[in-house]
What we know:
The complex is a heterodimer of chains A (242) and B (304). Chain A is an all-alpha fold and 242 residues long. Chain A is built from 11 helices and no strands. Helix content of chain B is 34%, strand content 28%. Chain B has helices at 42-49, 71-76, 93-103, 108-121, 137-149, 167-182, 194-200, 218-224, 262-275, 290-297, and strands at 4-13, 16-26, 31-35, 57-62, 65-66, 78-81, 155-159, 186-190, 203-208, 211-216, 229-235, 248-251, 254-259, 280-286. In chain B, the strands form 3 sheets. Chain B has a 6-stranded mixed β-sheet, with helices on both faces. In chain B, strands 2-1-4-5 form a 4-stranded antiparallel β-sheet. In chain B, α3 packs across α4 and α3 (93-103) packs parallel to α5. Chain B starts with a strand and ends in a 7-residue tail after the last helix. At the A-B interface, α1 and α5 of A face α2 and α3 of B.
Amino acid sequence: MGSKIWAIARKDIQMYYFKGPVVIFGVLFPLFLFLAFYIGRNLPAAFLIPGLVAMTIFFTSTSVSPVIMPWETQMRTLERLISCPVTVRTLIVGDILASFIFGTCISAVPVAVGVALGVSVKSPVILAIAVILAAFCFSALGLLFSAPPTSLVSNIMMLSTFVKFPVIFISGIFIPVDQMPGWGVAVASLSPLTYFTDLARYAIQGYAYYPLYADFAALFVYAALFLFLAVRLHERALPKRF
Amino acid sequence: MDAIEVKDLSKSFEGLKAVDSVSFSVHTSEIFGFLGPNGAGKTTTVRMLTGVIKPDSGEARVMGRDIESETKRVKEVLGVLPETANAYPDLTAWGNLMLIASLYGIPRREGERRATTLLKEFGIYERRSSKVKGFSKGMKQRLMLSMALVSDPEVLFLDEPTSGLDVQSARAIRQRIKELQEESKTVFLTSHNMQEVGELCDRVGIINKGKMVTVDSPEHLRTRIGGSVAVEVRLDRAVDLSRLDFKVERAGDTYRIYTTEPHDVIRAIVGFATLNGLKILSLNVQPPSLEDVFVKLTGGSNGQ
């Protein structure tokens, strides 16, 4: 099963990720969003870099994974793929693996930018584990977006954008959770990105709002939930794609 | 044991019966033609048998394996060339073949050996490192057939394998299909090309409006419907044969007259030719074609 998952992931990387525009967009989009927030404000880099890392990993891990299924339905490659002895679970985990590799690699860029700006990573191990868990979690979320059995990429992009942008604003990236009002904290606690941002702040700034175990547990639970739902919903949706 | 056994298989989409209690079997090492007008239920039947969609009711076994409870094991013995499917355009021919080999669990070395053999056999080895998006339709189809064969399957489902291809590509694929039978493979061939089906298939199943109309050999089908034969005549110059009391069709330099009384037609033609000083170049009596059989059994319907 492992070699089949890797075959799917390698196909995704060659077909969708290993392309200049995708890589450049993966780095530039969060950077521009970050600059829009940063320019004109006198904020320390150590505060900003965790937010940039969080945005980058969230956007890159959910950028391509939602469009693979509708794209392959439209290109008529999916039927060829599903005629092979592979399960929907293998397809989904393969797609997640490709997105995970992409998200993990690209998230190194804002960390390197931070280091170049003189920001030190106080807990690199915590940051590395958090990046791995978050990249998996958000990649599974990306696959969840593509569960509706449509071949129209634009429909899925609209759905994912509709979810992704509000998540960015409620996850403690621009306003730390400890500065939010009570209702803000309650809303932030619903977002998986909040827990990664909290871990990134701990790894770089040295403090976190939630206990570390709670951040890791929340990310893990969200990752498991998104994976479970993605597999179940795609199993139901797949026959409707033909 | 039959390679494919289908019993009362049914599938509906939004209340509409696409396949309605279809039953048939395909013998091992047989080339079985599956015919039907557009929308008759061919693709739905093939998708159920290849494990892409699940039937609503009924059962089917491929090489003794149940398509519902052993879907993955069924897929392991199948090679599939779906009509509407494509190879990955941004992967190379080699990349596409190795992807499929990996998904069948074929070890890398063995996959490379088979990919090399198949690409050479289908004349696209020199283009193995080119992306598929630059391939002609014939090359893409030869690659798709290579992808169907890379797992060395026992049963092949080929959906319109020569549709839209140039003569050379179509001939190469037909030749390969014949060879597959010699290699003891079972071939389930869906095609609209009646000549191809008549030439290749041991038996033919005709489906119409979701129901199996008949299963028989092409030869039996031709004789079974009985009735009219076609009298074909070629003359040394073009004439108006409509003066004869028969409905005449013209195809190139051949005149074709469908009749239940060939004797009368031949006498009339010979008399007409003698009277008008025409030279008869050829005169044949043809049994009904598979196309005639198909049209008669499907009531002339065509979903298009």
